[in-house]
From TrEMBL, chain A:
InterPro entries, per the entry: BCAA_transport, Leu-bd, Leu_Ile_Val-bd, Peripla_BP_I
Keywords from the UniProt entry: Amino-acid transport, Signal, Transport
Domain Leucine-binding protein: start-end pairs: 26-362
CDD domains on file: PBP1_ABC_ligand_binding-like
Alphabetical GO biological process terms: amino acid transport
Native source organism of the sequence: Alloyangia pacifica
Family per similarity comment: Belongs to the leucine-binding protein family.
Signal peptide interval: 1-25
Name of one Pfam family that matches: Peripla_BP_6
Protein name per its UniProtKB record: Branched-chain amino acid transport system substrate-binding protein
TrEMBL record, chain B:
Name of the molecule in the record: Branched-chain amino acid transport system permease protein
GO process terms (BP): amino acid transport
Keyword Ion transport (UniProt): no
Keywords tagged on the record: Amino-acid transport, Cell membrane, Membrane, Transmembrane, Transmembrane helix, Transport
GO cellular component, one term: plasma membrane
Pfam families the UniProt entry points to: BPD_transp_2
Organism ancestry: Bacteria, Pseudomonadati, Pseudomonadota, Alphaproteobacteria, Rhodobacterales
From TrEMBL, chain C:
Classification of source organism: Bacteria, Pseudomonadati, Pseudomonadota, Alphaproteobacteria, Rhodobacterales
InterPro entries: ABC_transp_permease (IPR001851), LivM-like (IPR043428)
Membrane protein topology class: Multi-pass membrane protein
GO cellular component: plasma membrane
Keywords: Cell membrane, Membrane, Transmembrane, Transmembrane helix
Record has Membrane as a keyword: yes
Transmembrane segments: 6-24, 31-52, 58-76, 135-153, 183-206, 218-242, 262-281
GO molecular function: branched-chain amino acid transmembrane transporter activity
Locations listed in the record: Cell membrane
Superkingdom, natural source: Bacteria
Protein name according to UniProt: Branched-chain amino acid transport system permease protein
Length: 370, 297, 296
């Protein structure tokens, strides 16, 4: 008896030690981003943004005095995988808040799942107007596409292109961009000759391109992700479409890195601003840590989502969901400055003002225009 | 119109080699080997790796095709000979399972991104107002040569005679001294070669990603079934019919119907056209469009 | 019981129902259906349409059942005209047509985007109550489906189905109407698949065309082949085995610190490799069909 008791006690202590640290010694958040699939490049950019934010916070003493940790899961670019990943974060890792994802097609169903579970959700990248309706406990760190397409439509009109053909990826993001862009362009006196939605991951997009060409537009306006966009640009070059009319890319940083320079000469476009006032430190750390410039425009927003969440937890004084939600709303009202500028949220929890930039391609690089 | 013809022929090139391979093997072992579409992807990836390793394209193509032919024989000996003793449906399911495993291998080895051969890309030429690219022409030549070679083997060689004899009546062929197992494996080898060339020529015209096999599966099947499964050369006609249907669906401006200037169906409805054609066709003529020449030998 | 365990068990129950449905078709009746996921999709999209149109969820169930019965009948009609491998390809094609249409028609249930925000069943219950209630409901329905399948397969009708599978000419000669039998089997199993789909939609809260990919059908095939073709106990065991094996792949990834493509690749290997290994070394599955049995 006397011999077994200490042994039991040790065993008990050992089990407590083994199971407890995750809950006690650190504050854990979750993130679901595309680490594989056709958005792996911007997904990696998001992961880097998160990594830098965690380092910054821990260097400054952590959150509520504890070190911060963000568990990053892969969405694989599929709604089902993303929901399963979010479910694992919520039920197994018991995180108080989830950041994610990249494309609106994933963010919408995942956000709706999180809202039903009552877990606060921060959207770091998706710009579809539908994101507004996800629910009460969902917040966006990025401006939505009703604003971005208006910016793009103004650009297109200013370039003297009256009638354009639109090519967009077939998901919530592409559907939204095509509709909103057409609305804005028509309101400004222009017109969309045809809108073609394509399914990603195909071996060739000749058919879609020939459909666009048949309408003989003043310009081709498109929005596509990573490797799909690279193939579209290659084939449009091969088919001679780039000689006939100029190409304009909405959210151009999504596709620039993956496309070879010879297929994108003369391409121009727009995207969300990378950096706001006060973001220079982030840019410097990024280049020092990874030895290259940003992979996409979205790493900064993921970075800011982590900072925003950490600040809200500090404000709430705990990771209790209700307290955290109240703190997020309060922080959104008073405004918060991150690498992408000031983040203020409207009554729906969406970012109010959003900087946009004009770009043109020179060689392999994007050059900012004013 | 010219553009329609050219688009149809180019699409038929995508399908023809793999469909002929599928039909040719079916004539001997009586089950549709789904894994053939994945062999095409293996061919494309291996060809690209060889090219990256410094082999010129003219060598990379045949080396990769022979490699895939051998892989096909290995899978046939290790897997399908055994499964076929349980029946053709079991072998069909087995070939689906093999396709999944190959997909997993591609995913781990290459990831989800699209790859292409290191080829100079030049703007298309204009021929009678229609566009043709250099690579479309070169792959057309490769495809015609490969199909011609296969037909020559089938009709003018001893192996071809034995293949046709085995397809017509395996027991009789075996009784008259033909080593049917050798004949079958020779055919499987040729099917692997054709499929690999199919995959590589596809990749030369566009790009290849790990999903290519899955995307090609049903159009290729539709072409092979339409041509009469087992009738290798009928599959070429099947491929042309399927391509014409697909091209009609995507190239036609349906704007007239709705009173708008332009209305195109989404390009992925091309596949729907071929599947619908296939299902409707199976309903009407369960044995295929052309009577099998092989069976009349 | 951890919530994650409840989650996996609940999904396993739904797949158990699907495995029973496929077993009724291919196991007992020899109908090689590669388009089962389309029948499941009738259930998920029934739920989605009801949600979009503001109908009560149960109306969505009715809608899904009607779609599924019609599609099952159509599949059966096709089967009357072609041999089993052709029918397999035809059903696969039909399922793909359905997926492509739902992918490209935005007006129909959101196109590629799908429909999200469906109410999750029992979401109002606190703590683990919701998860446990769902698990209880799915388990009860699985049990009901199991009893139904056992009754069918042990009846005289079940005997006739097996004869259709083994000796279709003989069955026809004995006066059985094969077309009618095929239709009955297809309708019953389609309804089962649609019920599973409806529940799945209200579990995941999301319906989209990606759920109709053909490899989902092959996952169900692997459950039947591994569990034991034409053995109802076996296929349910197969469903649980496969779901648990797949659910724990991400943890293995974390543990071995593998790249993120590892999860998708390993799942493909488990399904494809499982099918192949069993077809080669144990074609009758873990629980072989009982020959003879207690037929009246």
């Amino acid at each position: 008896m006397t011999r077994t008791t200490p042994a039991l006690a040790t065993l008990l202590a050992a089990t407590t030690l083994l199971s407890a640290p995750a809950a006690l010694a650190e504050i854990t958040l979750g993130a679901v981003i595309p680490l594989s699939g056709s958005n792996a490049t911007p997904g990696e950019d998001q992961r880097r943004g998160i990594e830098i934010a965690v380092k910054e916070i821990n260097a400054a003493g952590g959150v509520l005095g504890e070190p911060l940790k963000v568990i990053v899961e892969d969405s694989a670019g599929k709604p089902q995988t993303a929901i399963d990943a979010a479910r694992k974060l919520v039920t197994v890792d018991e995180v108080p808040l989830v950041i994610g994802s990249y494309s609106s097609g994933i963010t919408l169903p995942m956000g709706e799942y999180l809202v039903q579970e009552g877990i606060p959700h921060l959207n770091p990248a998706s710009t579809s107007g539908l994101v507004r309706n996800i629910g009460d406990s969902s917040f966006s760190m990025v401006g939505l596409d009703n604003v971005s397409t208006e910016f793009a439509a103004k650009e297109v009109i200013a370039n003297g292109w009256k009638n354009v053909a639109v090519l967009a990826v077939n998901n919530a993001f592409g559907q939204g961009v095509a509709q909103e862009f057409q609305k804005h362009l028509e309101a400004m006196g222009g017109g969309v000759k045809t809108s073609v939605l394509f399914t990603g991951g195909q071996p060739s997009y000749r058919r879609e391109l020939q459909q666009l060409e048949a309408t003989d537009p003043d310009a081709y306006v498109f929005t596509a992700y990573g490797t799909d966009a690279a193939l579209i640009m290659q084939e449009s070059f091969e088919l001679g479409l780039q000689e006939d009319a100029p190409w304009y890319s909405i959210l151009i940083t999504m596709m620039n890195k993956d496309t070879a320079p010879e297929f994108k000469q003369g391409l121009s476009g727009m995207d969300v601003g990378y950096l706001g006032a006060g973001g220079e430190g982030y840019a410097a750390t990024y280049e020092a840590d990874y030895g290259e410039t940003f992979l996409s425009a979205y790493g900064g927003y993921a970075h800011d989502a982590v900072l925003f969440a950490a600040k809200a937890i500090e404000k709430a004084g705990s990771t209790d969901k209700q307290a955290l939600l109240t703190a997020i709303r309060a922080l959104g009202d008073e405004g918060f400055t991150g690498a992408t500028g000031e983040i203020k949220l409207d009554a729906n929890g969406q970012r109010m003002s959003q900087p946009y930039l004009k770009f043109k391609v020179e060689g392999n690089d994007l050059v900012q225009m004013d | 119109m010219i553009q329609f013809l050219i688009d149809t022929i180019i699409r038929a090139l995508d399908l023809a080699l793999i469909a002929v391979a599928l039909s040719g093997v079916y004539s001997l072992i009586k089950f549709p080997n789904v894994a053939l579409v994945q062999y095409a992807v293996v061919g494309a990836f291996v060809g690209m790796l060889l090219q990256q390793a410094g082999l010129p394209l003219v060598l990379a193509l045949p080396v990769s095709a022979i490699f895939v032919g051998l892989v096909a024989v290995i899978f046939n000996v290790l897997l399908f000979e055994r499964l076929l003793t349980e029946g053709s449906a079991i072998a069909l399911i087995g070939s689906l399972a093999l396709s999944m495993i190959l997909s997993a291998v591609f995913l781990l080895a290459f990831g989800p991104a699209a790859y292409r051969f290191d080829l100079a890309v030049a703007p298309a030429m204009r021929v009678l107002g229609a566009r043709i690219t250099v690579h479309q022409l070169s792959t057309l030549a490769i495809t015609v040569a490969a199909l011609g070679g296969f037909a020559a083997i089938l009709f003018f060689t001893r192996l071809g005679r034995e293949m046709r004899a085995t397809a017509t009546n395996k027991v009789l062929a075996s009784a008259s001294g033909i080593d049917t197992r050798r004949v079958i494996n020779a055919t499987v080898f040729l099917s692997g070669v054709l499929a690999a060339l199919g995959g590589m020529t596809l990749a030369m015209r566009g790009s290849v990603s790990i999903d290519l096999g899955t995307q090609m599966l049903l159009p290729v099947f539709a072409a092979a079934i339409l041509g009469g499964l087992g009738n290798a050369l009928g599959a070429i006609a099947g491929a042309l019919v399927i391509s014409a249907a697909e091209t009609f669906v995507t190239n036609t401006n349906f704007g007239v119907l709705t009173g708008t200037d332009f209305l195109f169906l989404p390009a992925s409805y091309a596949q729907t056209a071929s599947f619908a054609l296939l299902v409707g066709f199976l309903l009407l003529r369960p044995s295929g469009l052309f009577t099998s020449e092989v069976s009349r030998v | 019981m951890s919530e994650f365990l409840i989650h996996v068990a609940a999904v396993s129950c739904l797949y158990g129902i699907l495995a029973l449905a496929l077993n009724l078709q291919m196991g007992f009746s020899g109908l090689v259906n590669f388009g089962l996921i389309a029948l499941f999709g009738c259930g998920t999209y029934g739920a989605a349409f009801a949600h979009l149109w503001g109908w009560p969820p149960l109306a969505g169930l009715a809608l899904g059942l009607i779609f599924a019965a019609l599609m099952g009948l159509f599949f059966a009609r096709l089967g009357a005209r072609m041999s089993e491998d052709y029918w397999g390809i035809a059903t696969l094609s039909l399922a793909e047509i359905m997926r492509l249409v739902f992918t490209n028609e935005q007006a129909l249930a959101g196109g590629a985007q799908g429909v999200s925000g469906l109410p999750v069943s029992f979401a109002g219950l606190a703590g683990q109550g919701a998860g446990l209630s769902r698990l209880a409901l799915y388990a009860a329905l699985l049990a009901a489906a199991f009893v139904l399948c056992q009754r069918i397969t042990r009846s005289g009708f079940g005997m006739a189905l097996k004869m259709m599978r083994e000796e279709p000419q003989l069955a026809r000669a004995l006066g059985y109407d094969l077309g009618r039998m095929r239709a009955i089997v297809m309708v019953i199993s389609s309804l089962m698949a649609a019920v599973a789909g409806f529940l799945y939609a209200h579990y995941l809260s999301f319906v989209g065309p990606e759920q109709l990919m053909s490899h989902e059908t092959f996952l169900i095939w692997s459950m039947v082949i591994i569990g034991g073709i034409a053995n109802n106990w076996g296929v349910v065991a197969g469903a649980f085995l496969m779901q648990f094996a797949l659910a724990y792949v991400p943890f293995v990834k974390d543990w071995l610190d593998m790249p993120s493509d590892f999860v998708a690749a390993t799942r493909l290997v488990i399904v494809g490799g499982g099918i192949l290994a069993f077809l080669i070394w144990r074609p009758k599955g873990l629980f072989p069909e009982r020959i003879g049995g207690s037929h009246g």
